[in-house]
Design brief:
There is one protein chain. This protein has about 750 residues and is an alpha/beta fold. The chain folds into four domains: about 180 residues, Rossmann fold (3-Layer(aba) Sandwich), CATH 3.40.50; about 210 residues, Rossmann fold; about 60 residues; about 190 residues, Gyrase A, domain 2, CATH 3.30.1360. Helix content is about 35%, strand content about 25%. It has a seven-stranded mixed beta sheet with strand order 1-11-16-15-12-14-13, with helices on both faces. Strand 8, helix 9 and strand 9 form a beta-alpha-beta unit. The chain is globular and about 80 Å long. About 50% of the residues are buried.
């Protein structure tokens, strides 16, 4: 292909190369019966035929039949293969019989975006009303919906959370529905998945029946996952795993060049070719940095990410749709099916954290039956090098399930408070065990009151619920110049907003002057001139408490999973040259008083054996490196992003790997269940590298708190090989000072 040849030739400027090309040609799902052979209402059949739909796919027919039979269903099929029709057609049939449905989308933007598609299908059914009810719906429209609810109501989890707690009219409309659709199921991993489950519990008033339909194209779904996410049993109906149409995927070996520089250069080339290009990264600050670097290559890339004001994100979406923009760099905020027009190319500046996310992002290119181009830049990281050695494995991976933690106490506290606020008073004996535990914590914190075994709401309850967020489980730090310009959740805020750091918002650079965790405010000043450097924090982590909930032997090693209390100490930061080919610090700053934050989460403790001929330093080099490669392996076996997991290692042989979210996100739990596979991948990482004794390609971690000191690839290789051969370790307690 001509574009591929041009890109391949242009990459030679940096010494980089296209390492592997994969051509994806996905067939349509298996054909099912003609519309005339179904028992659907003739008005629906006639309307669909006028829209050019003559037959159903087999999976659509199965979905429609199951939904009409009242079964709970998760519909899994690739992008562009008709998932929306698979659940909407039976809901239209039910609407003609007087039944109402609520369609829940993860964001307001996506919900309103889907309205136009649904209206397209409703052109021939004027008797069915569809409306959107969210935070942007004006008062008059809301009142009209409350007085005469539409057959199909579109909303989002945030609106349901607040509406159930504060509005009797809203409660009546939502609980009065007969069917609930959760589209884009894959979005509900981590903390958001925990919140969704509790919202559904509140809709059905904790344990009642509910008719739920889920839909996604990019997850491995099982009946167990269905039950965990929705709280009821259900079946899985599958179409095809891949999206509809053709795409060309290319893996780029950066050959040691900065991925950010290479991706910026690549985006510039593609935009100059007249190709509408979307660049994905996983870090908010990396999105800003990449967009800034792209200016050097003549590409004006807009930034679309969480943490900037919603108005700015909406402007980017609109400009993409109408053709004013030809290039955007985004975090996962644009993974969803928001209509941003037809895209030609997706560039992934880093290997996505999981295969489902890769498929989701790749599916944004070449939609509407156009050829899509997908470039993935692989850099100097353990997993990138693993896939450069096995490129075919990159595209043959199995989909992983979403991960979330239904015992996240911070999430439960939010919904318990909201439920008590709605009811005004709740008898403690009517609450499930976890909800009652959350209520007791709320009582201790003075957020609710309790008398004669009845929990009561107070003015503090209302304030707590109003300030709560479904997008996080930790406190939110405001980023303030003269006004609020952004926000960041703790503990992630510790690693972006420490004093002296450079923080970017919409390609504008600010220097952080102070971080106050009591007022949850970071004060920044704008920098007019590029300083030519960026910073990374130095920090340490300490475990304050561990409560075991389960344990098992993993390759002869004692492994435990449970609840952790961790304290993070940010002690300073290191400075790096912005345009250096390889990352080497040019300065280091230590604080007089560390910044300290303590939170509860979930995690794993693994005890490794000691080697008789190793001194203390050698042992720490092995354990610390092994901690890093196990976290890297978690990206393959558990779908972990770069920031989902953190770790600590101790000279006693203990390695601790824990969820980076307050309360837990479920990733460490999945890793715990797949540790044997993680050790196999970890062994390949340390065995396959050609460095002397440690480098970014094997044991370095970009988020290491001590700047990747005290690491040895060779000693980790010896340790992991020793473990896999079946050598056991004792179950002694943690000793010594930790390393992160």
């Amino acid at each position: 292909m001509q574009v591929l040849d041009k890109i391949s030739e242009s990459l030679k400027v940096f010494g980089a190369q296209i390492a592997h090309v994969y051509t994806e040609t996905a067939l349509d799902p298996e054909i099912g019966p003609p519309l005339d052979d179904t028992n659907l209402d003739k008005r629906i059949v006639n309307g669909l035929e006028k829209l050019g739909i003559q037959r159903l796919y087999k999976y659509q027919y199965e979905s429609i039949s199951s939904i009409l039979n009242g079964e709970n269903v998760a519909i899994i099929s690739g992008t562009g293969t008709g998932k929306t029709e698979a659940f909407l057609i039976p809901l239209l049939e039910l609407a003609l019989k007087g039944e109402r449905s609520v369609l829940i989308y993860p964001t307001k933007a996506l919900a309103r975006d889907q309205l136009s598609r649904i209206n397209w299908l409703l052109n021939f059914l004027p008797e069915i009303k569809v409306d959107v009810l969210d935070g942007d719906t004006d008062r008059a429209k809301r009142q009209k919906i409350y007085e005469d609810p539409p057959e199909i109501l579109i909303t989002n989890p945030d609106m349901i959370h607040v509406g159930l707690a504060l509005s009797p009219n809203f409660r009546q409309v939502i609980r009065g529905a007969d069917h609930y659709v959760i589209d884009e199921m894959h979005v509900y991993d981590g903390v958001l998945g925990s919140h969704l489950r509790r919202i559904l519990d509140r809709i059905r008033e904790l344990n009642g029946p509910i008719h739920v339909i889920g839909a996604s194209g990019t997850i491995e779904a099982t009946p167990l996952l269905f039950n965990e996410l929705f709280g009821v049993d259900g079946k899985i109906v599958r179409g095809v795993n891949r999206r509809r149409g053709m795409a060309i995927h290319a893996l780029i070996d950066s050959k040691g060049v900065s991925r950010w520089t290479l991706s910026s250069y690549l985006a510039g080339l593609l935009v100059k070719e007249g190709l509408k290009t979307l660049v994905f990264v996983d870090s908010q600050q990396m999105a800003e940095r990449l967009a800034k670097i792209a200016e050097r290559f003549g590409a004006n890339l807009a930034v679309h990410r969480a943490g900037i004001l919603p108005k700015e994100r909406m402007e980017v979406e609109e400009k993409l749709r109408n053709g004013e923009l030809h290039g955007v760099v985004a975090t996962p905020t644009l993974e969803l099916g928001i209509d941003i027009g037809s895209l030609d190319v997706v560039v992934m500046a880093e290997n996505p954290p999981s295969y489902p996310k890769y498929i989701q992002r790749a599916g944004r290119a070449g939609r509407r039956d156009k050829l899509g181009l997908i470039f993935t830049v692989l850099g100097d990281s353990p997993i990138d090098n693993y896939f450069l050695r096995r490129p075919s494995e990159f595209f043959s991976r199995k989909l992983t399930p979403i991960t979330f933690d239904n015992s996240n106490m911070e999430v439960l506290k939010v919904h318990t408070a909201a439920f008590i606020l709605e009811k005004l008073g709740v008898n403690m004996n009517t609450l499930p065990d976890l909800w009652r535990r959350a209520a007791e914590e709320l009582k201790k914190e003075g957020i609710i009151a309790c008398e004669n075994k009845v929990y009561y709401s107070t003015s503090s309850t209302r304030e707590f619920v109003r300030k709560s967020s479904l997008r996080s489980s930790g406190p939110i730090v405001k980023v303030v110049e003269q006004r609020k310009i952004g926000e960041r959740e703790l503990p992630a805020a510790l690693y972006d907003l420490y004093p002296g750091s450079l923080y970017m918002v919409s390609k504008r650079t600010y220097e952080v002057k102070s971080l106050d965790l009591r007022s949850l405010e970071a004060r920044v000043v704008k920098i007019e001139q590029d300083k030519g450097y960026y910073t990374k924090p130095l920090y340490s982590v300490d475990i304050k408490e561990f409560k075991e909930t389960e344990s098992r032997k993993v390759l002869g090693l004692p492994a435990k999973y449970g609840e952790l209390t961790v304290t993070v100490f940010v002690t300073g930061y290191v400075v790096y040259d912005y345009y250096s080919k390889r990352e080497k610090p040019v300065n280091e700053v230590q604080y007089d008083n560390p910044i300290e934050f303590t939170y509860n989460t979930k995690g794993i403790i693994i005890k490794h054996p000691a080697m008789d001929d190793w001194d203390l330093l050698s042992s720490m080099e092995a354990y610390h490196a092994t901690e890093h490669v196990l976290i890297s392996a978690g990206r393959v076996v558990a779908g972990a992003s770069l920031t989902d997991l953190s770790g600590i290692s101790y000279p006693s042989g203990h390695v601790v790997i824990y969820d980076s979210s307050v309360g837990g996100n479920g990733v460490s739990r999945l890793l715990y269940s797949r540790l044997e596979s993680a050790y196999d991948i970890a062994l390949d990482i340390v065995k396959g590298c050609d460095c002397e004794d440690g480098c970014p390609k094997c044991v370095y971690d970009p988020y290491c708190g001590n700047n990747n000191r005290v690491l040895s690839r060779k000693k980790s290789l010896r340790l992991i090989d020793y473990v896999i051969k079946g050598e056991e370790a004792d179950d002694s307690p943690i000793e010594g000072k930790s390393v992160r």
